[in-house]
Amino acid sequence: MPSSSVLLASLLCLVPANTVLSAAQLPRIDLPPDSPVVLLAADYGESNEVARGSAMLLDVHAALSLRNASQRRIRGITLLVSAQDVTPGGKGSVTVTSLDVAPQEAFPVRIDLRLLRPLQASAGVPVQIGLDGVLFDDLSFYGPDKLSSRHTLTLSEWEARRDRRYFKSVLATGGQEKLRHEMLESLTHQADRPSLDVQVVRGARSTNFEPEKQVQFAFLSLPDSPVEPIGGMARIAGNEARAPRLEVKNRSDRAVRYLEVGWILHDHSGREFLAGSVPAELNLAPGQRSQILGDATLKFPQLGGQPLGIEGMTGFVSSVEFADGTLWIPTRTDLEGPQLQQVVAPSDEEQRLAQIYRKKGMKALVAELNKF
Amino acid sequence: MSHPAPEQIALFSGGDLGRWERRRVARHVAHCPECRHQVQTLLEASAQLRELAAQMPDLTDSLNWSRLAQEMTGNIRVGLAAGEAIARFDKPKRLRPRLGWNAALVSLGAAVIFTIAFWSSLPPQQAGHLLTSLRRIRTERIGALVHSGAAPADEVVLEASSSGIQVRENGSAMSLISHSEGATVSVNMHGSAGIRFVDADTGQVTTNKVYYAEQ
């Protein structure tokens, strides 16, 4: 029917059409000349842009293929993603951990990025991708480290070594049956952890109508922790938490230069979840005390579909970096305590091993553990 | 020449007089050396007090400003509730014939003049508190305010949910998307939000993060 065809054509004209990105709009990838990784290929398959009201939405799907051009095995890499024309106040990163890339071997890095910018914004190259750091198997590091990638990648590698050691000991003492039990428990734990949406606003005052109150931290005592939390408080109003203030003491015999305190929140119905961490770069001599202040506000829209009312808080030392570059992280025993087990996510490596077990089975998992 | 009362001089030196009264006293002080001297003395005393206060430990944390604001909000809310309660009673029968549009316009004009006069006579700080309280009540009664335009300038917001993370500023946004279920969200008070996921096909562990610029 001609009239319905015209109507259909008119309706189709109203649907915003996706446009494939031009070469000028594709991300620019800048790796330093002496970079230990080189770009083999970049595929932007389904990248496109579409107008949304008075804004333009750019969808960038980049599948990068990188090659290890160094003489050492790569354990982790962080790429810096910036879109200064779009969000001058912020930037992003993509970190791949738990890698084991031999020299000259290629590995993929996938970046799925979405940019929303006003139509009147400049239409130059929207995204730059650079290298922030590479960690090798001997824990040496390459890169500008603008995003503290050295710490992040080293911490992940320490956790990976701890967890591989643990699962290998499980295999050695309890056999495949015990390892299977551990993997199933890990998968269950990953599925059961409460998912949480959160907003971070820099230095914002409370916008909640409920009265703001100061809440004291309770602390979990981890016996081997080189740093002891002495006291602390934060301001809580309804579903907002801000301005944590913590006092810590170095009880080890080595100077500490960085530490992170995990922050667990409790709501009025007894639910607990890991809200985030309070990091601090400091110079804490043995026996010395220091205060850590956080200036951001955390807002939790809801948890499990229900509004969240924060009632209490618990803190625990989640990682410590000494002045000599070595790290302290909680032991498996610490993490298996009743409170931490509920809220702390498994390490990158534990998630990777559990995924191998789920996708490829016990034989592949044992082979993977025996590689290290 | 009649001088303003001492209380008015004190309020004037603290900037606590209403707009019209302030203008009147200022005109007087500009031409009266005696009152100008009094204002000068009060200003010096006030500066000394501020200096002393600055040397004292910070008590800002112990003052419960939010409680004070709540009390003010509560008082206004009680007033509104009382108005609603009275409105439920039967209205008295009209004894006089309707005066028509002219009377309504006169009443409206009087109300506008009264409101402007009341508002302009309020000291700036009290006007600010009242405005804040009225906004709160409006928000409570008609729902949350939604800014359809850009976010307040300079406010960089990081958001993390199980589908991805985003840095948002002035209507522009950059999101990094996870393409796997069971992603782990984390935030850091130093100004970053992250999401970690395991690629179902490759088993690769990827952590996407967004940061404030200064990091």
Tell me the layout of helices and strands:
The complex is a heterodimer of chains A (372) and B (215).
Chain A: H1 2-14, E1 19-20, E2 28-30, E3 37-43, E4 48-52, E5 55-68, E6 74-82, E7 90-97, E8 106-118, E9 128-136, E10 141-142, H2 149-192, E11 198-202, E12 213-219, E13 227-237, E14 240-250, E15 256-267, E16 272-284, E17 289-293, E18 296-299, E19 310-322, E20 327-328, H3 332-335, H4 338-343, H5 348-360, H6 362-370
Parallel strand pairs in A: 2-9, 12-19
Antiparallel strand pairs in A: 1-4, 3-5, 4-5, 5-8, 6-7, 6-9, 9-10, 11-18, 12-13, 13-14, 14-17, 14-18, 15-16, 15-19, 19-20
Chain B: H1 6-13, H2 19-31, H3 33-55, H4 65-88, H5 101-121, H6 124-142, E1 157-161, E2 164-169, E3 172-177, E4 184-188, E5 192-198, E6 205-212
Antiparallel strand pairs in B: 1-2, 2-3, 4-5, 5-6
Helix pairs in contact in B: 1-3, 2-3, 4-6
Q: Can you tell me about this structure?
A:
The complex is a heterodimer of chains A (372) and B (215). Chain A is α+β, with helices and mostly antiparallel strands and 372 residues long. Helix content of chain A is 24%, strand content 42%. Chain A has 3 domains: 16-147, Immunoglobulin-like, CATH 2.60.40; 156-193 and 351-370, no CATH class; 199-344, Sandwich (Immunoglobulin-like), CATH 2.60.40. In chain A, strands 11, 12, 13, 14, 15, 16, 17, 18, 19 and 20 form a 10-stranded mixed β-sheet that branches. In chain A, strands 1, 3, 4, 5 and 8 form a 5-stranded antiparallel β-sheet that branches. In chain A, strands 2, 6, 7, 9 and 10 form a 5-stranded mixed β-sheet that branches. In chain A, a hairpin with a 2-residue loop joins strand 4 (48-52) and strand 5. Chain B has 215 residues and is α+β, with helices and mostly antiparallel strands. In chain B, a hairpin with a 6-residue loop joins strand 5 and strand 6. Chain B is elongated. Residues 142-154 of chain B have low confidence and may be disordered. The chains are: A alpha+beta (372), B alpha+beta (215). At the A-B interface, strand 7, strand 8, helix 2, strand 11 and strand 16 of A face helix 4, helix 6, strand 1, strand 2 and strand 3 of B.
